[in-house]
Amino acid sequence: xxxxxxxxxxxxxTGGAQGIGYAIAERFVAEGARVVLGDxxxxxxxxxxxxxxxxxxxxxxxxxxxVESDVDALLATAVDSFGSLDVVVNNAGITxxxxxxxxxxxQFDQVINVHLKGTWNGTRKASAIxxxxxxxxxxxxxxxxxxVGMVGQTNYSAAxxxxxxxxxxxxxxxxxxxxxxxxxxxGLIRTAMTEAMPQKAWDQKMVEIPxxxxxxxxxxxxxxxxxxxxxxxxxxxxxxxxTGGRFx
Length: 248
Known about the structure:
Elements: E1 10-14, H1 19-30, E2 34-39, H2 42-52, E3 58-62, H3 68-82, E4 87-90, H4 105-133, E5 136-141, H5 145-148, H6 154-174, E6 179-186, H7 192-195, H8 199-207, H9 217-228, E7 239-242
Parallel strand pairs: 1-2, 1-4, 2-3, 4-5, 5-6, 6-7
Helix pairs in contact: 1-9, 3-4, 4-6
Protein name: 3-oxoacyl-ACP reductase FabG
Organism: Saccharopolyspora oryzae
EC number: 1.1.1.100
C-alpha cells in the first residue's frame, strides 16, 4: 500500500480558518500532513485546528501576514510543534472592491499589503528555513483577476498579478536550494464570499465559464496538494489556472 502523499510532512497555511485555506488544510491532513493554520482571527484558527483533529495533527495561530514577526512566529510554531517545515501555502487575502474613482488609498493599501506583502513575507521567511534543509514546497494563491483584470478590482488584480511575478522570481532564486515555488490562479469558486455576490454578477460570470459551473474549494485543494507533493517534483515557477476554462 502506497504512503499518503504528504506523509509526516508539516504544512503551514495562511488564511486557514475557513474557505479555500481550510479546504486545503483538510485535504493535507487526509494525506498524512500535520498542519499549522494561520489566520488574523486566532480563535477561528484554533477552532478549525480542533476540527481537523486537534493537537496531534493541527495547530491554530493568530497571524497577521503583513507583520513580519507574526509570520516568524507562525513558522516557528510548525517547527517547534512538529519538527519541520515542508510546505507553506500563502492563501490569506481580503477584498476591498471599488472603482478607481471611488477607491480610497487605504483600500488600495490594505489589499496590496495582505495579498502581496503577505505572500512575500510568507515566501521569504519559509525560504530561509527550507533552504537549510534543502527541500520544500511553497504554494502561492493568485487569482484569475491577476491575469485579466476585473472592474472594481484595481487593488486586487494588481496584487494577484504581483503574486505571479513574485512566485516566478522566488522560484528562480530558490531552485538550486531544492525549494519549489508555484502558484494557483482560481477562477469563480463557490465560497461564502462569492455566494454573497448579487445574482446578476454571478450570472454574468457563469456565462464566461465553458464548463458551465463554479468551482468548489475542494478542487483548489486538490491542485494545492499536487503542487505541495512530490507529484510535481519537476515543477517550479508555474502558474496553474483552475477556472473551468474561463478566459483561456
